[in-house]
Write a structure and sequence with these properties.
By secondary structure, the protein is α+β, with helices and mostly antiparallel strands. It is built from 5 helices and 8 strands; from the N terminus they run βββαβββββαααα.
């Protein structure tokens, strides 16, 4: 009786006759599956951190529009002499600006305040992350966190530190997906 394996992990069992039957063979062991899963989680975390990194480097804003409300006060006057009166004036209030990020639009002011709060935090780790974020925002940081093959850019330790910084900012801005990626990123460097 011979056993041959094909690419698709299917075994053909032959007993010397022309008849053969396919037998499923167990796939890769749990250790291999876990390694592949961790590797793909790390790649996803690296890609998500890079997306955040590039969005902060670009600091692309969207200027919101404020509806100008027009209310007629004619009912409160003895004689109706005009159409509606704008209560906000022609200019209205300043338009809110939002920053475009991988998790969608977030308030520019909130993002800026969070970076500043981290920079002046009482703990050395948070302050270092804040300084890294400030450098990203000012355009004085690395061009990219990843190299052309998808691995960490050189120097790796600095790229990882920037990745932790941008994902920490994303978490503080309410990014649930960023929290998962930050966990996998920290797990991979420990």
């Amino acid at each position: 009786m011979t056993l041959t394996l094909s690419r698709h992990q299917e075994a053909h069992l032959t007993n010397g006759t022309k008849r053969s039957r396919a037998v499923q063979v167990a796939g890769p062991g749990p250790a291999v599956r876990e390694f592949v899963s961790q590797r793909s989680n790390q790649q996803a975390a690296r890609a998500y951190a890079e997306a955040w990194y590039q969005s902060l480097r670009a600091w692309k804003l969207v200027f919101g529009e404020v509806a100008v409300l027009s209310v007629s006060y004619a009912a409160f006057r003895s004689t109706s002499s005009g159409d509606g009166i704008s209560t906000l004036g022609e200019g209205g209030t300043p338009s809110p600006t939002t920053l475009i990020t991988p998790m969608g639009e977030v308030g520019e002011g909130e993002a800026g305040r969070t970076i500043t709060n981290l920079e002046y935090a009482g703990t050395p780790d948070a302050a270092r992350l804040g300084r890294r974020l400030k450098a990203v925002r000012e355009g004085t940081s690395m061009a990219s966190l990843v190299d052309e093959c998808g691995g960490w850019a050189s120097p790796k330790d600095r790229a990882v530190e920037y990745a932790v910084a941008v994902l920490t900012l994303a978490v503080r801005l309410g990014g649930a997906q960023a929290e998962i990626h930050l966990f996998h990123l920290r797990e991979s460097v420990d």
